[in-house]
Amino acid sequence: MLSNASRMLTYLTAILYTILGILLFFLSEQLAPVFAWKVTPFMASTMGGWCIGNAWSAFFTARRWDWKLVYPSLIYLWVFGVSELAVLLAFRENIVLQHPIAWLYLLTISLNAFAALLGVYEWFRHRPAYETFGPPAKPFHYLLISPFVLIVAGLALYGLYAQVGDVGTNGGVFPEVMSLFTLRAFAVFYLSLCISAAVQLRERNLSTMLHYGFSSYLLVLAITAAIFMYFNLFDFSTHPGQLIYVGAYFLIGIPLTLTIIREGTGLRQT
User: Fold this and answer.
1) Are 105 and 36 in contact (CB under 8 A)?
2) Is 205 helix (H, G, I), strand (E, B) or coil?
3) Torsion sign across C-alpha atoms 195, 197, 203, 205
4) Residue 270: its pLDDT value, please?
5) I need a labelling partner for 110 at 20 to 30 A (CA). Which of 133, 135, 142, 208 fits?
6) Read out DSSP for 117-177?
7) Which of 13, 84, 77, 109 is nearest to 219 (CA)?
8) Closest by Cα among 4, 31, 19, 9 to 102
9) CB 142 within 8 A of CB 215
């Protein structure tokens, strides 16, 4: 349904996210002070985890490139690119483009957003009919998706409307004080996950759900790894709300791991 140009853009997005993600994740201490706006090393490492996860998702989505199988993953990437670019535009006065890592972030998000606009345009042109294929999803799968949608929806809505100084923004959930810029960037990340997962509550094809879970898997692992890299920042006795941030990834990651082991990645559709 989507063109080869969209596919190539998705591959190119995967390459840029790979480079950006590796740099931010593994060189967070060095790159946080020269990033596009003021972030801490833990924030930079977490954003690197997003990027590594996006690279994984974009690569396997472009490789499989079958609309009925990969459309939730494309929706995630599209919403992420457009919404993160919107955050950059909203806080453009706070952006500092003095280091290559800042320019790389801007380029990657811009290309992601352009790929999204092209993909949406092509979808409107062709309006693909819904197809059923392979084994059907079972009630158990919807029970897994529903809590995930609720968790990320709550994080997204709070991050979109909260102001600096509100409950949870001063180390109450995330272990560091966030600027409004960073808070909104995190919020639209969760919004992207929420929207792309929510569309599957009406999905009947198990393989489509499995592909989405598989394409999101490295995202969960990378962010969880960033948590352990900076675990010394957490103080659960003083800020018990921080358990929400850590626990959310375990509540998502453990069932996702077991589902992939048991039912596969969505590649086999018969």
Assistant:
1) yes
2) strand
3) positive
4) 42
5) 208
6) HHHHHHHHHH-PPP---SSBP-HHHHHHHHHHHHHHHHHHHHHHH--TTSTTTBTTSSSSB
7) 77
8) 31
9) no
